[in-house]
Each structure stands twice: as C-alpha cells, then as structure tokens.
C-alpha cells in the first residue's frame, strides 16, 4: 500500500516537473543563444497568466490559453529587438541589470493595469476533478498540461534538431563567428528563439492561472524554481533542463511523502548536492574555471 | 557567444534577486506640528495582498480624521511602510519610534512580525496596536503591557466555524485532516483546533505542516486522499489559502473543505466557482449597520472596490485610537493604556460595541461564520459570501468565545 502511494507521488511529481519545464526551458533557450540570463522571464510568465484571465472572461478558457502565449510572444519580439539585442556582446552584468529592472517595471505595470489584488479565474468544468486509474489518482487538468508539455517538447526538439532553422540556431550557439562568416544573419533566429522562450513562459502562466493565485508578484515566485531547475540541469542544456525539472518534481513529491516538513527544503538540498558534485549542473558544459 | 562564465552570471543573478527582497527606507521629513503615527503591514510575500488592503484602510482613516480637524487639533502624519518580514518589521518599528518620532505604532498581519514589533514597543515603552495578527500566543504567553490586539484570535475563529459546523453535524465523531501553515500563526491555530476537536469528540487523523512559500499543494492533496478524512480543514494564511482552494477544486475531492482562517481578499482571489465550505471572518462589507456602511461607501468611492476585512480593521483601529487620544487629551502611551484598560467601549461597525479586555488587551467583539453564495446569486465578484449569525449569540456575553485565562495565560509586567 505504501509503495502505491509513493508511486503516486512520483507520477504526480513528474507532472509537476513537466510544468516547471515550461518556464525553465524558455529561460535556458534564451541563455543558449544570447548568453543572457533573462531575469524578466518571470514577468512574461505573469503576463501570460493575466492575459489568459482577461481573455477567458471574453472568449472562454480554450481560446485564451492558445492566444495569450502567442500575444505575449509578440511582446517578446519587441523585447528582443529593442532590449536584448544590445546586450549579446556586452558585459553580462549589464543584461542582468536591464532584465532585472524590466522585471520590476513589468510587475509595477501589472499592478497599475490590473491592481494589486489577485484576479480570479477557474478551470473549465470539463477539466475539473480527478481521474482514477487503478489505484492512482491524477488531476484531469494536470494531465492536460502534461499532454501539452509533452507535445511542445517534441516540437521544440524537432525544431532544433530536424529543421534548417534548428541547425542554424545550434551552429549559432556553438560558433556564432563561423555562422556569420557563412553569410547567415543570426538576428532573425535570435528573435525567433526569444519569442519561443517568452511564449513558453507565458503558456506556463496561462495554464497555471486557474490553479494558483494570479497576483503581480507571481513572476518573482516562479523564477526561484526556474533557477533551481536550470542550475541543477545545467544552464543551456536541453536535456539537462528536462531531467532536472522532472527530478525536482519527483524529489519534492517523495520528500513530502516521507518527511513533509522537508518538502520545500528538499529541492534546495538536491541543488546543493548537484553543485557539489557537478558545479556545471547535470548536463551543463564544463566550466574550466571551476573543475 | 558566452564570454563570461556561467557561474558568474548565476551568482550575480542571485545577488540581484536577493537585493529585491530588501526594502528601502522612506525619506524622513522634518515635521513639527503634526502627530506622527507609524503603520507597518506586509505588502510583499504571501500576506502582501491583504496587507495592501490594510494600508488603504489606514490611509482612509487618517484622511478622514485630518479632514475633520485631526487629533488634539493637530494633523496626523501617517508613516505607512512594508514590514516585509519579522526582522525588518522590528528594525522599521525601532526606527519609527526612535528616529521618526512616531508616538505610537499600529498595523501588521503576520503573527511572527507582530511578535517582534511587540518586543520593540515594550522596549521603547510605546503602545502598539496589532491590527491583523491572530495567534493566541500574542495575547497569551507572549503578551505585554504595551501591546493591544484588534483582530479576533485563533481560538475565536475556531469557535466561530466550529459552532457552525456542529449545527450541521460535521464535528462529533468525524475524522478531520488539517493543512497547517508552518509558522507561529499556524502552530497556534492548530493548537486551538486540537482543543476544539478534543472537546467535541472529533478525531484529528492527519496533519501536514506546510512552509509559507509552497504554491503547489498536489503532493499534500494526495496525502489527504490517502487518509480518507470526513472533513479537510485549512489552517493556512494569505494567498496560500487561495492556492489551496483553487487546487482543491481542481482535484475535486468528495471531502468537504472548511477552514479556521480566511480573509475575504483571499476568498475573492479564489474565485466564485472554487470556494465552498464554512469559514470564519471578523468582518464583511455587507454587514448592515451605519458605521460599517459609511466606511464601505467611503472606501468604495475612494478606491473603486469594496474594502477587505484588513482594510476595515486598520481603519477602525486608527479611528478608535484617535477617539481615545481626543478623550484623554494625550498621546502618552501610559495614559492611553490606562484609558483602554478601563474597558472603554467603541463602535466598530458591528451590532455590539467592542472593548479591549483589561487583562490581555484583546479587542473583544463579535465574529461571524460564513458560507459561499451560489454563483448565480452573486451581484458582483465581491458578493461571494453569506454571513451566518454573529457569534456569540445575542443573549450570550461576548467573552464566551474568547480564550480564558487558563487557556491563554497572560502575565503583564507592570
């Protein structure tokens, strides 16, 4: 019996990890191509949630969850074109400062537009409740999230590994000078990748809006967990982030099963252990300076 | 394209994130002919939303008092800041009393922060009116002469909901599972709940202590299902209540969810279709009496939304303080303490008047259980709750629902 409950926690942890993945993958992608740690990533997550709530009231949840990430991704174009682009070759401290500032501006902007009090929205009736398979219980809504995340992962992987677009992006990550020498302009690719990353964050926000408090500081909250995931996985590594996100979800579930009080601490302990053994993260690139 | 080491980036990111958590002190202005009052309340973190309401409430009270001539003929200079956390709250309280020249302090929602401000108040021998903190311990073993407590304590919230639940036959012989906030407030609330369960033949079959930064409750909900309780009981605080309520609706468990703590702001945030069950409250904007209605009208006019219970409590506290200062003609803390200990009565917008109990400085007042309105009967997004009858019943003394001296020993040093 105990084993079943534990397994249930593991499966639930995988689902939760899938959700963390949406946020962390975007963060990691933007870092890979631009070398920028986007501290404003959480702001796009919050924006995704708010736009989704707003659209849900007008169009219903289905269209809202599709349109809101796309709308926020369009903002991502402006973000890349007018802000990030100036910092690709600059001192990373500058891009940290500017994205950090932007996160604060975005939070205040949300406060001004929607107010400081949280806005509320609900899961559509058809996705409420849980599904029981054998002895396992799943939230119907989280299964939907899991399915969407899995589909997105496949798409992103195909995009990066099976298309000419992906080849240029990957080449750009490894040897930007060589790509430029071949006469390929990297800028449009950068824009597209930033759009993708920002859109993923917004999708995460849109999906979580019905089951969490939608408030102006929600972006800052999610950044903590996103950083834990990318640090464990290795910033910039596609598979590293996936493994780390799932690991974080599962470790938390198991910790809460056995020792609830250590639930939140467990993921930081995991991060600590990983950093001790592999300072670059599980699948991150080797950092000469530290190893 | 990355010329700098990743570790440098991460370290710097962490530093920036850390820096954002620190508050910046307000610029101190030199003012002589005004009476300065310090107000602290969390504007960030899991209590930030309801703290925002508290700040709007106290500002409205200060504006109204100033518009009608101030106190002792002087204008109130309200210094209202984000208390952030217990350590910062104490530092700011200290600064307000020592450097900014505040004559007294009020505010706070977090029981942990309230406790540290109480200690500062006692050291400085200035009164502090803890407006929104609910831990019994603050007015029990941790009480001190300089601290007054305006919100209902945990025991009262448990009694208010417990009484309503007993009427529905949901207590005797039932199995309860509690989810409790892991800090002084939650521990205290759980203690009050356990006392109640023991006194009324209910069984507590499981309890989970939950850190205040948890936003996803799914692993805990799986444990709830494993325990198969009759009633699930939420002893959380701030927007954690909202998160739990939303995720509880998501999982769609058959066990009713009730709670011993909820602020109306968190109920509104949970949304109409998510909240159900029976909960306690200290005040709601539909209360039908002149003082309450005038406050709701003024607040709604000024801010474009109805007030939340923390807006109300910070508002009435400053109002009754002004009344006390005008009556005693003094802002001296010792004179105010003497006045309040005479159990002077105040109209706080409820059917019965309230007073500070002399031996533990608790504002004794009515409380209410509430249930949730069906969605199709709501007039607007704020019209969510149906208030039950005030507890204690009209023919019983107010103090019957408050902790007794045995339950909540308070020894004030002279």
Shape of chain B: globular
Q: What would you call the structural class of chain A?
A: mainly alpha
| Mean pLDDT figure of chain A | 90
Q: What's the tally of helices of chain B?
A: 13
Span between termini of chain B: 69 Å
| Overall pLDDT confidence of chain B | 90
* Poorly predicted sequence stretches spanning 5 or more consecutive residues of chain B: 20-31
Q: Count the strands of chain B? A: 15
Going by helix content, strand content and strand pairing, the class of chain B is alpha/beta
Q: How is the biggest beta sheet of chain A arranged?
A: 2 strands, antiparallel
Subunit arrangement of the protein = heterodimer
The run of helices and strands of chain B is HEHEHEHEHEHEHEHEHEHEHHHEEEEE
**How far apart, in Å, are the first and last alpha carbons of chain A?**
44 Å
Count the beta strands of chain A: 2
Gyration radius over CA of chain B: 22 Å
Shape, principal axes of CA atoms of chain A:
globular
**Percentage beta strand of chain A:** under 5%
Helix content of chain A: over 70%
Secondary structure elements and pairings:
The complex is a heterodimer of chains A (291) and B (414).
Chain A: H1 2-34, H2 41-59, H3 61-83, H4 92-114, E1 130-133, E2 136-139, H5 140-162, H6 164-174, H7 176-181, H8 187-208, H9 218-233, H10 238-258, H11 263-277
Antiparallel strand pairs in A: 1-2
Helix pairs in contact in A: 1-5, 1-8, 1-9, 1-10, 2-3, 2-4, 2-8, 2-9, 3-8, 5-6, 9-10, 9-11, 10-11
Chain B: H1 6-21, E1 35-41, H2 48-67, E2 76-82, H3 86-98, E3 104-107, H4 111-124, E4 128-130, H5 136-139, E5 147-149, H6 154-167, E6 175-181, H7 184-199, E7 203-210, H8 218-227, E8 231-235, H9 239-251, E9 257-259, H10 264-270, E10 279-281, H11 290-303, H12 309-328, H13 333-341, E11 345-346, E12 354-356, E13 363-364, E14 368-372, E15 385-387
Parallel strand pairs in B: 1-2, 1-3, 3-4, 4-5, 6-7, 6-8, 8-9
Antiparallel strand pairs in B: 10-14, 11-12, 12-13, 14-15
